[in-house]
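DM from R.C. (forwarded with permission)

"hey, sorry to bug you on a friday — could you get me a structure for this? deadline for the figure draft is monday and I only need the backbone to look sensible"
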Amino acid sequence: MELHENLDNCRIILRDVESGRTIADTMILTYDGTKDSIRIATEGIFLDEGTKISALIFSRSGLFENQGTVGGREADATQITLYEGTSRNDRHAVRYRVNIQGEVDRIVRPSEGKISEAFGITVLNMSSIGLLIQAPEGRIREKDVIRFSAVSKGQRLSITAEAMRVAGADNGMENIGCSVQLVNLG
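My reply, with the result:
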């Protein structure tokens, strides 16, 4: 595994590898880097021991995606052993449904330069390399580089991403597929 930092109190989203379902969106209570083991808060969340998971970890230095196996439960915490999964550098990275509200505060458009008109967006899903956002129609174009911020589970996110494709949605909104360039957490 590539994580060499304190992950205590970082957000983690778990996805069941077999079913593809998101099964938990919670916080890491403790991380033991010598054993690649974490304890996560699971009050009201029931995870079957032995379940193979994919985890998106929102660390202080960026987003990480790892594979793992659910271990035993103790009170309102569950142990998970993490191991290095398949290295993903393409569109097939595992996507996690997040539904985070954010605000774009800057757009850099190749033909026009910086545009600093703030507006709200929703991050529908994200992976370690990309995200799908929903924004008001006509605000973001392909090749625009956007910067937005949001707060999720008490953790502040600032993300810079390039719009790779724009597709119509409903009610005056568009879905924008983006390639993540930079993530700042905290």
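R.C.: lifesaver. Residues 85-91 have pLDDT under 50 and may be disordered.
me: no worries. Residues 28 and 40 are 4 Å apart (CA to CA).
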